[in-house]
Write a structure and sequence with these properties.
The structure holds two protein chains of two kinds. By secondary structure, chain A is α/β, with parallel strands linked by helices. Chain A has helices spanning 43-50, 80-86, 102-113, 119-132, 136-139, 152-165, 182-195, 208-214, 238-243, 248-254, and strands at 5-14, 17-27, 32-36, 60-68, 71-72, 87-90, 170-174, 200-204, 217-223, 230-237. Chain A has a domain at 5-94 and 171-254: P-loop containing nucleotide triphosphate hydrolases (Rossmann fold, 3-Layer(aba) Sandwich). Chain A is globular. Chain B has eleven helices and no strands. The chains are: A alpha/beta, B mainly alpha. Chain A: GO terms for molecular function: ATP binding; ATP hydrolysis activity; phosphate transmembrane transporter activity.
């Protein structure tokens, strides 16, 4: 579990529109990598290329290389479905399946991966995943109730439980706390700190303090100019980025002196 | 947002004329619908009453009203049920193809054609059934009789003209296919992108994504669409009237020429030469159809409500 991802010279297109250009970075296993940057610079777009969700947009494509522990994710013989089974994702807006119970939400991915599972094993997995997402105590008495009946923060933790239930190698999170209150946000940050011992975590966030608190490595994305494609400006240890970045634009953005 | 809190706050506060007019107009239309419905029901009951209470020898066929209406009701339900059985899965499949598989151009064209089909008058389908479809079913029904004759549905003897319950079910299926398809397609299009992506991100294939996110989300629309179709099939008059040659039999045999008719077709065929109590009898059979349609709709509603919590509407 927990794999390293190497990205090399990645160009990302929507049709003919080059959205992100020339990203090269290494995402370390068992650590949290935060991606920050102004709106529209391509953080979500980049994140979604890591589990091949990007190509679901009609006309979308990438050029360049993404390699996860020697496996070229964009190799000709690679099935995107398998990539997504190894690389889980949590979205900006909590999206538990409204037509399923809390229990069924948690095992939704597992049911896809392994066809048959004993009831007892399934129960154990549900408890383990919900505990991992810090949600067990709040929902253990209403597992058969719909997932959409939970609060926003609980729903987001349910989505995390759903993502970790399939034991992915990597967990991608696109602004997972942006719809949540400070308390739920803290709960999810704590969760990330725990989860990183087992997973490779990549998180997109607009919250500078959050990036500083939870991440080991930070990548700063920016647009060179309006109309130009976005790109990775610099990536380094989080301490370094927040105390002494090597690029002026990073410094400006972090200190709020951004254009 | 002010508009939603307004209601609780403005007791006694001056109301704007626009709000008043709108409230009056919508309340009025609501009441009007109820009044019309009640009027129709009252008419049916009062006109049907003489037939229901009449002595057996006055009813056509010299037996009680129940005996008169039963084969018709049976024919109505049988043909509509099989029409639904054929049309619903097909409609769901077509809707899925249009919304999730077809290239965008083809999908738009197909959607357009389906909507056009929904507007074709039913008599056209009836004519097509008599002239085209019925003769073509003769060979296949013979085959069914020979090879699957042990199933009561295909017991035979196969009709030589093809004017059978099977044919009428097929015609009705074609007739209700567009309406079911368009209701279901509309619902599938509304499946939140968020939930489709959630399942894809878990590593679902396209079909698994459809089973996880699209079908459950469209469930109540499928039931609703099917009920609309069923309503149309139950009440269909002309296509059945010109296609079936009824003999008043009650049997599940779909392919023989000894068929029951349906309530609506029977009314259309019998009414012109009727007078006196026979008219009351026909109206009473109409009342039965009315009640059945109402029951079916309530049943469908119950099905939808039972899993309301999980409907995704909240
Ligand atoms: N589905 C799409 N089709 C076409 N262009 C898109 C699509 N999604 C995003 N883009 C474009 O790609 C660029 C990057 O968008 P992206 O959503 O990745 O930005 P972001 O950094 O995540 O911004 P935010 O912080 O606001 O979420 C933008 O110019 C955007 O308009
Ligand atoms: Mg984004």
């Amino acid at each position: 579990m927990a794999k390293r991802i190497e990205v090399n010279g990645l160009d990302i297109y929507y049709g003919n529109f080059l959205a992100v250009q020339g990203v090269s970075m290494t995402i370390q296993p068992q650590s949290v990598t935060a991606l920050i940057g102004p709106s529209g610079c391509g953080k979500s777009t980049f994140l979604r290329t890591l589990n091949r969700m990007h190509e679901l947009v009609p006309g979308a494509r990438v050029e360049g290389k993404v390699v996860m522990d020697d496996q070229d994710l964009y190799g000709a013989d690679v099935d995107p479905v398998n990539v997504r089974r190894q690389i889980g994702m949590v979205f900006q807006r909590p999206n538990p399946f409204p037509t399923m119970s809390i229990y069924d939400n948690v095992v939704a991915g597992v049911k896809l991966n392994s066809k048959r599972m004993k009831k007892a094993d399934m129960d154990a997995l549900v408890e383990r995943s919900l505990r991992a997402a810090n949600l067990w105590d709040e929902v253990k008495d209403r597992l058969s109730k719909p997932g959409s009946g939970l609060s926003g923060g609980q729903q987001q933790r349910l989505c995390i439980a759903r993502a970790v239930a399939v034991q992915p190698e990597v967990l991608l999170m696109d602004e997972p706390c942006s719809a949540l209150d400070p308390i739920s946000t803290m709960a999810i940050e704590d969760l990330m700190m725990q989860l990183k011992s087992e997973y490779t975590i990549v998180i997109v966030t607009h919250n500078m303090q959050q990036a500083a608190r939870v991440s080991d490595t930070t990548g700063f994305f920016n647009l060179k100019a309006v109309g130009e494609p976005g790109g990775l400006v610099e990536v380094d240890a989080t301490d370094k980025i927040f105390s002494n970045p090597s690029v002026q634009a990073t410094e400006d953005y972090i200190s709020g002196r951004f254009g | 947002m002010p508009p939603t809190t307004e209601k609780t706050r403005t007791r006694g506060a001056p109301q704007r004329p626009g709000d008043r007019i709108f409230a009056a107009a919508s309340t009025g239309s609501g009441v009007l619908i109820l009044v019309i419905l009640a009027g129709v029901a009252a008419f049916l009951v009062s006109e049907a009453w003489p037939a229901i209470t009449a002595p057996a020898e006055d009813i056509p066929g010299d037996d009680s009203f129940v005996v008169y209406v039963w084969p018709l009701l049976f024919g109505t339900l049988l043909s509509a049920f099989f029409a639904l059985l054929i049309a619903t899965p097909l409609a769901v499949a077509i809707a899925l193809f249009i919304t999730h598989y077809a290239p965008r151009r083809l999908a738009a064209a197909l959607g357009y054609v389906i909507d056009l089909l929904a507007a074709v008058p039913s008599i056209i389908f009836g004519l097509w059934g008599v002239a085209e479809l019925a003769p073509r079913t003769v060979e296949p029904t013979r085959w069914l009789e020979e090879n699957l004759g042990f199933i009561p549905l295909f017991e035979g003897p196969a009709s030589a003209t093809g004017r059978t319950i099977l044919t009428i079910s097929l015609v009705l299926a074609v007739m209700i296919l567009p309406i079911i398809t368009s209701v279901v397609r509309e619902a599938f299009l509304q499946t939140p992108r968020l939930h489709e992506e959630a399942s894809l991100a878990l590593g679902a294939t396209r079909w698994e994504m459809i089973r996880m996110a699209v079908l459950p989300f469209g469930r109540s629309a499928i039931v609703g669409g099917a009920m609309l179709g069923l309503g149309r099939a139950l009440g269909e008059t002309m296509a059945v009237a010109i296609l079936l040659s009824p003999s008043g039999n009650v049997s599940f045999n779909l392919i023989s020429s000894a068929n029951p008719s349906t309530i609506a077709a029977n009314i259309a065929l019998t009414f012109p030469e009727s007078s006196g109590l026979t008219i009351n009898v026909l109206i009473a059979s109409g009342l039965v159809l009315f009640a059945v349609t109402l029951l079916v709709n309530m049943g469908a509603r119950a099905v939808i409500n039972r899993r309301r919590e999980f409907s995704g509407a909240n």
